[in-house]
């Protein structure tokens, strides 16, 4: 805003300056004529011839400057005008020294109308005419030419200094206009860039919202699988076992109690999953202890021994990493219970420098990991697929090794991202 206001003021000043340059010749001509009539020079040709030349000079200026201001940008008309201006000035100064006021216009008109080096020639000629006027006229100058030379040099020095500073000012003005043009172009490009960035920002926001929605859907799908699906599967297993032991009251009661406990636990975990809270075992115990508790509960439900071993130095990990390993253990044990027909299971949690690994091995039936798909869950889902997605989400890797009759080994390796205790 400030630069624009300064530019407007400079433009206004340039216009007023150009208007004064157009008026100055008439002022100098009028003043010289008035003084020439009041105090004529001794060798004056007379009032009438002098007035005739003065009127012709005024008409010359009017034609080229006043009536055709657009000619100032055209080199040839302005060169003709300036040559005529100096010719009339020479005739008038020869007629009366008072017309030095008119000859002085050659200084200020040389700068806007003459190109480059021609200004120097115009300045020298004007200095000679002004020095002749200052010396008292042509008759006096011819007899005192050394004094006239001093006056010429003095006028050239003064006029040259003014011209030099004027040229510097003109160059700076041209540079300023160029910078203003470049700044305007830069502002235009910046505005265009901001507009493009605004569109890109809106697009990124839309994509981020879509990604957030998709991520939340995937999280909910994993949590439902890890809580409701596994819990319901366990409940169904216990109820089926209870149905087969109706004639044995103690066994029937045990299976029903297990189903009720699984239902309550699944309901609690489902509520915690909806609120995106850590699983309850990790709220009250460290990961190794939570895995020991998980193995004990799973072994009691399914009657299969589950040994949990921890190697390395246990340390608090990022909550998301601990949840991932706990869910991987739950899914692996759930798969063993549904598909493996194993007699024993081993869980090994290994703390290393950069990674933490959970290995789950069983001695069950196994499957062909190269030629056959992984065991499919009831309802159409793949437990290993959900496990791999969860592990990959935290930057980890999931490896599965199995063969028919040779059991199954699942290894989940995740970055050992540090976290708070708890």
Rg of Cα set: 51 Å
Give the total of beta strands.
Answer: 5
**Which sequence of SSEs, written as H and E, runs from N to C?**
HHHHHHHHHHHEHEEHEE
Shape: rod-shaped
Helix count, DSSP H or I runs of 4 or more residues: 13
Structural class: alpha+beta
The oligomerization state is single chain
Mean pLDDT: 78
User: Helicity, in percent?
Assistant: 55-70%
Query: How far is the N terminus from the C terminus?
Result: 58 Å
Give a short account of the largest sheet: 5 strands, mixed
> Strand order across the biggest sheet?
1-2-3-5-4
Beta content: 5-15%
Task: List unreliable stretches of 5+ residues.
Answer: 375-381
What does the model show?
70% of the residues lie in helices and 9% in strands. The chain has helices at 2-38, 47-66, 75-95, 100-103, 105-113, 118-134, 138-143, 145-244, 249-274, 280-284, 287-302, 319-340, 383-393; strands at 305-311, 344-351, 355-362, 397-402, 408-415. It has a five-stranded mixed β-sheet, covered by helices on one side. A hairpin with a 5-residue loop joins strand 4 and strand 5 (408-415). It is rod-shaped, with a radius of gyration of 51 Å. The two termini are 58 Å apart. 32% of the residues are buried.
List the helices and strands and how they pair.
Elements: H1 2-38, H2 47-66, H3 75-95, H4 100-103, H5 105-113, H6 118-134, H7 138-143, H8 145-244, H9 249-274, H10 280-284, H11 287-302, E1 305-311, H12 319-340, E2 344-351, E3 355-362, H13 383-393, E4 397-402, E5 408-415
Parallel strand pairs: 1-2
Antiparallel strand pairs: 2-3, 3-5, 4-5
Helix pairs in contact: 1-2, 2-3, 3-5, 3-6, 5-6, 6-8, 8-9, 11-12, 12-13
């Amino acid at each position: 805003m400030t630069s624009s206001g300064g530019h407007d003021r400079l433009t206004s000043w340039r216009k007023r300056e150009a208007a004064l340059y157009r008026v100055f010749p008439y002022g100098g001509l009028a003043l010289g004529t008035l003084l020439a009539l009041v105090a004529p020079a001794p060798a004056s040709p007379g009032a009438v011839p002098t007035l005739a030349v003065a009127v012709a000079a005024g008409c010359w200026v009017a034609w080229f400057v006043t009536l055709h201001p657009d000619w100032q940008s055209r080199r040839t008309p302005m060169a003709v005008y300036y040559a005529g201006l100096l010719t009339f000035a020479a005739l008038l100064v020869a007629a009366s020294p008072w017309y030095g006021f008119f000859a002085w216009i050659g200084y200020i008109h040389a700068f806007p109308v003459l190109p480059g080096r021609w200004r120097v020639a115009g300045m020298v000629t004007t200095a000679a005419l002004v020095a002749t006027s200052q010396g008292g006229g042509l008759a006096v100058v011819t007899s005192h030419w050394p004094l006239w030379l001093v006056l010429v040099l003095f006028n050239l020095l003064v006029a040259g200094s003014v011209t030099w500073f004027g040229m510097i000012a003109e160059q700076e003005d041209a540079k300023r206009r160029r910078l203003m043009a470049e700044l305007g172009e830069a502002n235009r490009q910046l505005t265009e860039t901001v507009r493009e960035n605004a569109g890109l920002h809106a697009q990124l926001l839309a994509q981020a919202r879509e990604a957030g929605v998709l991520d939340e859907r995937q999280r909910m799908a994993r949590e439902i699988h890890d809580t409701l699906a596994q819990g319901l599967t366990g409940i169904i297993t216990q109820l089926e076992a209870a149905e087969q032991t109706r004639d044995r009251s103690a066994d029937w009661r045990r299976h029903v109690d297990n189903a009720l406990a699984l239902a309550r636990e699944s309901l609690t975990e489902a509520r915690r999953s909806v609120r995106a809270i850590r699983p309850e075992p990790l709220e009250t115990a460290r990961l190794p202890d939570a895995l020991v508790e998980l193995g004990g509960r799973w072994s009691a439900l399914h009657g299969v021994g589950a040994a949990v071993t921890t190697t390395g130095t246990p340390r608090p990990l990022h909550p998301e990493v601990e949840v991932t390993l706990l869910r991987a253990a739950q899914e692996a044990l759930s798969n063993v219970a549904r598909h493996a027909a194993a007699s024993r299971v081993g869980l090994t949690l290994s703390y290393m420098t950069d990674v933490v690994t959970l290995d789950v091995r069983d001695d069950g039936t196994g499957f062909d990991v190269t030629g056959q798909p992984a065991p499919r869950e009831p309802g159409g889902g793949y437990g290993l697929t959900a496990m791999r997605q969860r592990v990959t989400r935290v930057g980890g890797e999931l490896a599965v090794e199995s063969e028919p009759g040779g059991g199954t080994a699942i290894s989940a390796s995740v970055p050992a991202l540090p976290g708070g205790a708890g």
